[in-house]
Design goal:
It contains 8 helices and 4 strands. It has a two-stranded antiparallel sheet. The protein has a two-stranded antiparallel sheet with strand order 3-4. Strand 1 and strand 2 form a beta hairpin. The radius of gyration is 21 Å and the shape is elongated. The N and C termini lie far apart (about 70 Å).
Length: about 160
C-alpha cells in the first residue's frame, strides 16, 4: 500500500518566516509542527494529539495563545504578521482583550440607557460564550460599575448609576 500526500506550499512567505525562526533559535520543525501550524493558520481546532506541540511552538515565538483554559485559542505570532506587512490582520485575529470587552459591555449599557438581559449582552461580544460574558459582568459588578436587577429569566444588567 502506498500513500501519497500533496506537499504544495501555499504561502512561501510563511516558509521563509519559519526558516528565519529556525536559524535564530537553531530549532527544526517536525511534520507534526507543520500540521499544527496549518491548523492554527486556518483557525481550526487543534486535536488533543497535537496539543503538546503548541507549547514548543509558543516558546519559539511562532504562535500565540489568547484566553485561558478551555477557551484558549491559538494564532500565528505578531512576528509572522509583521514579516508579511499585515500587522492589522494579527490585531483583528487576536481580538479584543478583557478590558476592551468590559468597556464594550459598559458602552452598550450606557448607550441603551436601560437594563439588558444577558442574551442582548452576548450580542455585543459574539465571539465569547455566555459564561465568558457573565464573568466579565461579574468583574464589573465587583468593581461597582454594573448591577444585576431581578432573578433568573427576569434578570437584567444595568449600569450602577442606572439602577
Amino acid at each position: 500500500m502506498v500513500l501519497t500526500l500533496g506537499g504544495q506550499v501555499s504561502d512561501s512567505r510563511f516558509v521563509q518566516f519559519l526558516e528565519r525562526v529556525g536559524q535564530e533559535t537553531l530549532a527544526s520543525f517536525s511534520t507534526k509542527d507543520f500540521l499544527v501550524l496549518d491548523l492554527v493558520h486556518r483557525e481550526e481546532r487543534v486535536s488533543d494529539e497535537f496539543k503538546p506541540r503548541l507549547v514548543r511552538l509558543r516558546e519559539l515565538g511562532v504562535i500565540e495563545s489568547v484566553g485561558r483554559g478551555r477557551g484558549t485559542r491559538y494564532l500565528l505570532s505578531r512576528r509572522f504578521y509583521t514579516a508579511l506587512g499585515k500587522r492589522g490582520v494579527h490585531t483583528r485575529r487576536r481580538g479584543l482583550d478583557r478590558e476592551q470587552n468590559k468597556t464594550l459591555l459598559l458602552n452598550h449599557l450606557h448607550t441603551v440607557g436601560a437594563a439588558c438581559p444577558i442574551s442582548e449582552l452576548e450580542q455585543v461580544l459574539p465571539g465569547l460564550s455566555r459564561g465568558q460574558v457573565k464573568r466579565l459582568l461579574e468583574e464589573l459588578k465587583r468593581d461597582g460599575r454594573v448591577r444585576l436587577v431581578g432573578e433568573r429569566r427576569g434578570a437584567r444588567w444595568t449600569t450602577a448609576e442606572g439602577a
